Amino acid sequence: MQDQDIHRRVAEPAGDEHAPRDGRTEREATAVRVDVWADVVCPWAYIGKRRLEKALAAPALAGLATEVVWRPYRIDPTAPARGTRLDADSADAAADGAATSCAVGPSPVDGPGLVSRIAAEEGFGPGWGEVWRAGSHDAHRLVALAYRHGGSVLQGEVVEQVMKAHFLGGGNIGDPGLLRDIAERAGIPAASTLLDDCTAGREVRELLLIGKARGIATSPTIVVGDRALAGAQPPEVIVDFLTAAAAVRPRETPEEVQRLRWAESLLQQRDPLGALTLLRPLLDQHGDDLNARRLAARGYFHSAQLSQAHEVLRRLVEDCPDDSYTRLMLGRTLQRLGRGDEAAVHLKIAAAMSPELA
User: Which long-range contacts (CB under 8 A, 24 or more apart) does 307-310 make?
Assistant: First the structure.
């Protein structure tokens, strides 16, 4: 898949509300931000990391200051949190499955062992291979905390150590002890209690929703501004992508607008609970915003939270009695609540104002 404008698929680029300033250098704050959406248990993500590093070291990018920020993606949401050991056949199947879902370039039909062969070409050596199938949520929490404590440089070191442990060290990254050891070696303060921080878990879950809203569907996907490059592309392709993306001045979009667009995208993808999660900060801080309230009402309706939908829609109709679509939504909500007579009134008014809604 070649680079593409995310706006053609979903919404706006991620904003700085998910780029904590803590630990960042002045250079990082003014550099071109390169977001890498990837799963730390995805072999293509590790291969892609090496290829990105080669691209950033290329002479063509010598004058480009960049900040690489790692964002979470999940290739196996059903993996057990604490991990299960893989036998040889299972490990091969897992690698070939990753080749099928995220490969770029050679087709997985070229035969089993494709990922291992490409990993060897990238210099990973004979020890390459997964020993454990483990959920990556806690590892993503650690990656997010590393960025908060030390910016992109520390985060990059932690990502490398997590992937190295998983693919080269036979480590179980579902083991909190292993993650704490990585945090301690990285010099992250209070590493022994770091993973007790629930804030990072909420941040990871929200970022996963943002990635979904933006149409991120491959690990890794490199994003700069409005442009995305999916897959572990060759270094020369990454160089061309970064050169073109860095030449475009990013559009300034308020955080509130971004969240509305992301929530709308999730509603279109039939994920009303995800949409409500992304709307929550807007509802808490800008509870009178009509657009946020309308989207929240749709989220409540489509997640069968009918009492909440009714309350929001009732107040919206009071505030905007000439909004035919809100009238329609209120009527349908009342129907599902078994209040047919009340529903009929609002449905009739909606149809009179906008006959196409009849």
Answer: 307/337, 309/333, 310/334, 310/337
